[in-house]
# Entry
Amino acid sequence: MKKELRLMKGNEAVAEAAIRAGADGYFGYPITPQSEILEYLMEANPAKTTGMVVLQAESEVAAINMVYGGAACGKKVMTSSSSPGISLKQEGISYIAGAELPCLIVNVVRGGPGLGTIQPAQSDYFQSVKGGGHGDYHLIVLAPASVQEMADFVDLGFELAFKYRNPVLMLSDGAIGQMMEKVYLSPQKERSTVFPDWATTGKPATRERNIITSLDLDPNGMEMHNHKLQAKYNEIREKEVRYEEFQTEDAEYLLVAYGTSARVSQKAVQLLREQGIKVGLLRPITLFPFPTKRINELAGQVKGILSVEMSAGQMVEDVLLAVNGKVPVKHFGRMGGIVTTPEEVVENLKSKIIGG
Amino acid sequence: MAKIRGSIVVNIEKCKGCEVCMVSCPTGTIAMAKEVNGKGYNYAYPANPELCIGCANCAMVCPDGVITVYKTKI
# Structure
């Protein structure tokens, strides 16, 4: 079937893609720069067309726990928020990860800490990939760099979530959420009527009770559960690494960036190549699992790596671990809601890596 | 040729404060308001309305179709 072409905001694309992916429920709470997701879904009113439930909860905490409940019933459910709202949701996210339930969480990041600003930032990297909530858990983190990817990753996110019974986080930012681009929308999928065998859909006589819980008071049982989770995360690390490379074949220097920073860095690569400096770009698409292996391989080829991120330097730690001391690694980024410019990236690569 | 004066109207609630119009304005008519709209963005407004020549650059570059331009002959 032919894909429909539309001009949309990133946030609107997520909302439309959710309807088309056959999602069963969306529970959200408004916060700039993410409100368009909720607004679009409310206006589209998919309850009348696909039967998808859209609800504005009384708070972020309520929204994530509604997702917990929906996911426990084997439904395709999602929520979205921006940085301060995602902080509020962390308890629920940890519970969902502990209870091994699939769901999609969208974070349209704004500058922090605290209430911060409402402009784009990438300072939620640690929160997204290192945990965020309590306990040994990981989310699968997808980082879109275009409106098209914001739409595509809804379907991919649900697919991965159900494959591994693990919450998936889409780590976007205020720039991609707010900007308009053309986007090809996939055809409408039917909502699923068959539910996974672990779902709590009522106990028939033919099977045992399904129990969804993140609590086990027996420490031995809890340790076994943790081993099971870690085995799952290792499988994800093995199989689900996604990244994109731009002009890395003959690169002598490497930029590593995701999301909006990757778009800025791609322009910086062009500017540097015009000046005769051979630079490449690696864009991680999954932040957990991180493309550690590929960055380590590239570190054997290049003379230095600059990690570009709109933060004080968070992803650079994972790049350092991947490079393992082979070549110098430095960070460059603006903070608090300011988007880096390609010229700044060029200048910083020259001063921190080439000259330094 | 008749001289033309312009005037812009900003749909404040739809503005996300990207500042693209401000940069595109050749006469410095547009500035960003100190106040914010319902979403918390500093919105664009005609700070110097008498300078507007009705070129409609701002309306053309606005990614959200926030600005309407009116032209009058004087």
In short: Residues 243-354 of chain A form a domain with the Rossmann fold fold (CATH 3.40.50.920).
